[in-house]
Amino acid sequence: MSAAQGPGPETTDFGFRHVPREAKKPMVRAVFDSVAPRYDIMNDLMSLGIHRMWKRRFVQTLRPDPRRRLLDLASGTGDIAIAWRRAGGGPVVATDINEAMLSRGRDRAIAAACAADFAHVVADAEALPFPSGSADVVSIAFGLRNCTDKLAVLREARRVLRPGGRFHCLEFSRLQIAVLDPVYDRWSFQVLPRLGRAIAGDAESYRYLAESIRTFPDQETLAAMMREAGLARVSFQNLSGGIAAIHSGWRL
Length: 252
Known about the structure:
CATH superfamily: Vaccinia Virus protein VP39
Distance between the termini: 38 Å
Number of strands: 9
Number of domains: 1
Structural class: alpha/beta
Low-confidence stretches: 1-5
Radius of gyration: 17 Å
Number of helices: 9
Mean pLDDT: 91
Order of helices and strands: EEHHHEHEHEEHEHHHEE
Oligomer: single chain
CATH topology: Rossmann fold
Helix content: 40-55%
CATH class: Alpha Beta
CATH architecture: 3-Layer(aba) Sandwich
Strand content: 15-25%
């Protein structure tokens, strides 16, 4: 499933809909305000728990080190930031445009007893309030597809990295096993909204999340966007047949 044609210069995608560019951020914020209370349990149900494996692999690629500082964009409820600290990573700044999600991440960091050297900042990944060269590692997991100007996010990630720092993105991508496409579509567009209605009382937000996966750039397109943003030695690895992928690039 996909949108019939791409958005124009004054519009952007919101799932399969085209909306004014300035409307997308408040619409995305409303989605995550709605899903925040049940977000973690819904992640388990939506992915049958596989997202935990993907995130473990992602954190390994970050190479946590106590001497390195992580900036985690679209941090949400804090899975990546908390895992970084638990794995021995250094100070972390968790950012998200959605205060409700970030608040849950703060509570989880405190509950996990890893809140030391942990800052939470409400910030737009397209215009970060941090100095250039201030992070050793920049990560974003399942957040880039919700951003209005994805190229701006990639450019900001490069800007705040120190020379020799690395950007990592974990995101849903393009399934590489064609025979599974019908099954994946049924799960995404029939099962997920029903789960959203039953568990979170919100079918529409989960319909948007499924649609946003289909409108997100595929592996090669995202890699090209990262190069356009100035990142070097860009690479990616598929997870679960391309349902998700990890993209990485360096600031040289």
